[in-house]
């Protein structure tokens, strides 16, 4: 079950593996998806539709159909305010934005494009929606984020954020997905469209300064005055992503000693070190993808990076190197709930079912409520919007939290604010997040976590996705008595499409992959690495028996 690490992992990619951008964009415009083939249909995952034009899974036809479906959905649900639209630096994002604007303008939608065609981080777009909607009860705004997140350069992505500013819920995405596929099947005859030049000149097309609005408000979510006064030397690698010009403005506006290590944007992402599997991936939680920043970690008091749309964070300290997302989430929760006196004493801490149980222990000690949900940041959006959640975080390095006064900041993941929080933590506590985490584990127990993959065909994945606790015949896991079996998240009683098996000293959770013939196993032990390995070994046997392998 061990990962096969590529010999290129952690190294700059050879020229031969870089994407041919011209061919990629040509495929976007020329290849037409066949809606009778499942892999070529519109398919919304936990956060939008993703694919590659080379695989005919993300092409102009997809964007036309999805955008028209979104326009129709807005009409049906009386969404009449402006639509904020932003893109990241993936090469397919710009042509997709052009296509989307042609449809939006033809449908009479008021569209807010970025000033100067600046790239727009996901949190800046969420912030814009919420800022516009504050105090309004009608003519509410929503948004589109064109990004495949940290995926390889050849991928494209398209995501809808409704009026609450965060990722759309399953009820919305299913409706849009179904409508878009009907439009595809109908040969796009229902699509309204106008030429791009005309769309840019349309009275409904406007410009919005996302960068200034977001950066000027940052001080209300992170104590940047404290960071400045502490004189911390900060390093950041935007990984060639949408926030590349945000960091310089942040440093300048708040007087921070902040060095942007890489200011480059290149559609091939040739400056990225290769990920574990031999692919280019802008994943700030991967030590292989983060190798360039790790090489200079000793030059900074603390350093960080964000993925391509800047909704995920990676935190690097001198002593601990790259923190695992689970480690930093635990630190954030412990720190925030002790240093935000204006937050409601009823505000809960949110985590996903596959996040570390160290969070459970932290939250219990804080005497706060734990809100545990399936994978997907959409489950945190309502709570962050109304203030009933102080913090929401995913094990995949995505998190957001309230403003310092306890009101909503963003309802989508915010890699920028979460990264800057690491500097505030260091400035106030005198410990960087790595040292802070060491203190936590000394007090609450050391956690060993990992994720591995196991093979499974389509039928087996379907069985795992609908598994019930009754199908589990085992009574022990890694020599410990099984104390609890979950197929629904305790926080909202929603199925998470898999199973979680727990003991007093560890757990595993298994979920089928939506894109590959594998299932994912997440595990944790509070004993040792050896105990964690036993959990993984037992987990695969338990799941294989349950799904009939």
What is the total domain count? 3
Helix amount, in percent?
25-40%
Could you give the order of strands across the largest sheet? 1-2-6-5-3-4-7
CATH H-tier superfamily of the largest domain:
Alpha-D-Glucose-1,6-Bisphosphate, subunit A, domain 3
Could you give the count of β-strands? 23
CATH architecture of the largest domain: 3-Layer(aba) Sandwich
Radius of gyration: 23 Å
Query: End-to-end distance, in Å?
Result: 16 Å
Unreliable segments of 5+ consecutive residues: none
| CATH class identity of the largest domain | Alpha Beta
Strand content: 15-25%
Structural class: alpha/beta
**What is the averaged pLDDT score?**
96
Largest beta-sheet characterization: 7 strands, mixed
Shape: globular
Annotation field: number of helices: 17
CATH fold call of the largest domain: Alpha-D-Glucose-1,6-Bisphosphate, Chain A, domain 3
List keywords for this structure.
alpha/beta, Alpha-D-Glucose-1,6-Bisphosphate, Chain A, domain 3, 7-stranded mixed sheet, 5-stranded mixed sheet, 23 strands, phosphoprotein, magnesium ion binding, phosphoglucomutase activity
């Amino acid at each position: 079950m061990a990962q096969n690490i590529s010999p290129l992992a952690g190294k700059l990619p050879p020229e031969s593996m870089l994407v041919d951008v011209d061919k990629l964009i040509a495929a976007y415009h020329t290849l037409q998806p066949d809606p009778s083939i499942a892999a070529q249909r519109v398919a919304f995952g936990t956060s939008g539709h993703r694919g590659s034009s080379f695989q005919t899974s993300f092409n102009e036809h997809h964007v036309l159909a999805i955008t028209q479906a979104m326009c129709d959905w807005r009409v049906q649900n009386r969404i009449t305010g402006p639509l904020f639209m932003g893109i990241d630096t993936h090469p397919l994002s710009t042509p997709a934005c052009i296509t989307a604007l042609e449809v939006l303008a033809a449908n009479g939608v008021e569209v807010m494009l970025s000033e100067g065609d600046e790239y727009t981080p996901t949190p800046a777009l969420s912030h814009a929606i919420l800022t516009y909607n504050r105090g309004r009860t009608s003519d509410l705004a929503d948004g589109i984020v064109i990004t495949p997140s940290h995926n390889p350069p050849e991928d494209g992505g398209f995501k809808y954020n409704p009026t609450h500013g965060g990722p759309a819920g399953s009820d919305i995405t299913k409706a849009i997905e179904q409508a878009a596929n009907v439009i595809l099947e109908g040969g796009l005859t229902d699509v309204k469209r106008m030429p791009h030049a005309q769309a840019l000149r349309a009275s409904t097309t406007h410009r919005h300064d996302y960068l200034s609005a977001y950066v000027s408000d940052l001080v209300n979510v992170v104590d940047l005055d404290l960071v400045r006064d502490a004189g911390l030397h900060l390093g950041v690698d935007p990984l060639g992503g949408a926030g590349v010009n945000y960091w310089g403005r942040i440093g300048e506006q708040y007087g921070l000693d902040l060095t942007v290590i890489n200011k480059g944007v290149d559609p091939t992402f040739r400056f990225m070190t290769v990920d574990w599997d031999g692919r280019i991936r802008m994943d700030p939680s991967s030590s292989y993808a983060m190798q360039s920043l790790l090489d200079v970690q000793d030059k900074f008091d603390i350093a960080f990076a964000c993925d391509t749309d800047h909704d995920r964070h990676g935190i690097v300290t001198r002593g601990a190197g790259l923190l695992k997302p689970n480690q930093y989430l635990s630190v954030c929760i412990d720190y925030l709930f002790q240093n935000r006196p204006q937050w409601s004493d009823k505000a809960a801490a949110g985590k996903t079912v596959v996040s570390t149980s160290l969070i459970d222990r932290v939250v219990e000690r804080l005497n706060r409520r734990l809100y545990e949900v399936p994978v997907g940041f959409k489950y945190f959006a309502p709570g962050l919007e109304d203030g009933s959640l102080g913090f929401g975080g995913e094990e995949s390095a995505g998190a957001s939290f309230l403003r310092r006064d306890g009101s909503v900041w963003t309802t989508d993941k915010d890699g920028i604010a979460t990264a800057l929080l690491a500097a505030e933590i260091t400035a106030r506590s005198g410990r960087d997040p790595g040292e802070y985490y060491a203190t936590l584990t000394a007090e609450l127990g050391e956690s060993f976590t990992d994720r591995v993959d196991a093979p499974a065909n389509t039928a087996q994945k379907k069985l795992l996705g609908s598994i019930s606790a009754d199908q589990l015949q085992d009574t022990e896991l890694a020599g410990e008595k099984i104390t609890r079996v979950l197929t629904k998240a305790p926080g909202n009683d929603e199925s998470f499409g898999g199973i979680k098996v727990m003991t007093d000293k560890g757990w595993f959770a298994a979920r089928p992959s939506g894109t590959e013939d594998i299932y994912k196993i997440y595990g944790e032990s509070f004993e040792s690495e050896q105990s964690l390995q036993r959990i993984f070994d037992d987990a695969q046997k338990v799941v294989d028996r349950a799904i009939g392998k």
